[in-house]
Structures are given as C-alpha cells and as structure tokens.
Design goal:
Layout: E1 2-4, H1 11-33, H2 37-42, E2 50-52, E3 59-61, H3 62-74, E4 82-90, E5 96-105, E6 109-120, E7 123-132, H4 140-158
Parallel strand pairs: 1-4, 2-7
Antiparallel strand pairs: 2-3, 4-5, 5-6, 6-7
C-alpha cells in the first residue's frame, strides 16, 4: 500500500503519528473482514461519531450504525475493504488527522473512504468516516440520470 501525506514541524513525530493512524485504520478494516463487532466499533470516538455509507440515506451516528451493522457482523464477515492507497494529514498540533483512501472491495469494486480522526489520550479514534463510490467522469451523466430515476421511482412508491 502506498502511504503519503504532508509534513511540517517535527517530521519524526509526524511520521510516528501517521504510522499509528495507518495501523488503526488497517485494524479497523481487518476487524470488519473478521466480523469482530467490538474491535471494529472501538476504533470510533464514541456513539456520536459519524459513518456515511454509499447510499444517500446512509448517514448514521455510531449509535445508529451499530444496530444496522450488527446482522452483518453476525455473519462470518461484515465487509472486506482492502486499502490500495492512503493519504494521511495531521494538524499542526498533531491532535487531529484527516485521510482519504482508495479501497478494493469484492462487492462494490473500487471505493473511496475519507475521514477525520482525533487523538484521545494516547490513541487515535475515528470521528467521521465517509465511504463513496468514485464515478468516472465519462459515465457521470448516465449515472446521474439513473440516480434521478431511482429517486423518482422511490418517491412515487411512497405516495
């Protein structure tokens, strides 16, 4: 996996923090692939952290996300996201980090994750995560029309 990011200030300290963040994110993804519910959710700041999925309706606090995710974790594997590339950036005081990552998945294909971590005591925790499916510009017009049709169909079904 290629890891990149910006640097300033104490470069050695920043590299240590970036390594810790990469370890946390890798373990978080591994916990999902191993269906380890407790380990997966321990990586969040708490129940008010935000997880945004690929569907427009999938915006949850962790407290809301847990009941939705639990049946997936009760199977042998919740989901399997393999990092391909990740960029990590640190605030000047090294207490906040943000990242973006390209992921390979067996069911969604290539996806992108981005998020914010905060340092709590001596560890990093995920405060916000957003999962998206990157749409190539060459097909975006078609995809936008499909989304519009799907939204209109669901609106008509509820009326």
């Amino acid at each position: 996996m290629l890891v990149a990011g910006c640097s300033s200030g104490n470069d050695q300290s920043r590299q240590v923090q970036k390594k810790a963040i990469n370890t946390i994110l890798d373990d978080w993804h591994l916990a999902a692939s191993e269906a380890n519910f407790e380990r997966y959710f321990m990586h969040f700041t708490g129940d008010s952290a935000i997880f945004m999925g690929t569907d427009a309706t999938e915006r949850w606090t962790v407290a809301e996300f847990k009941p939705w995710a639990k049946p997936h974790f009760d199977d042998d594997q919740a989901w399997d996201f393999t990092p391909v590339e990740r960029h990590v950036y640190l605030s000047d005081n090294e207490q906040t980090a943000w990242f973006d990552e390209s992921l390979d998945t067996p069911n969604l294909g290539p996806v992108r994750g981005s998020g914010v971590l905060v340092r709590q005591e001596e560890s990093w925790k995920i405060a916000h995560y957003n999962l998206s499916i990157p749409v190539p510009n060459a097909i975006v017009d078609t995809v936008v029309k499909q989304i519009d049709r799907a939204l209109n169909d669901s609106t008509e079904q509820t009326n």
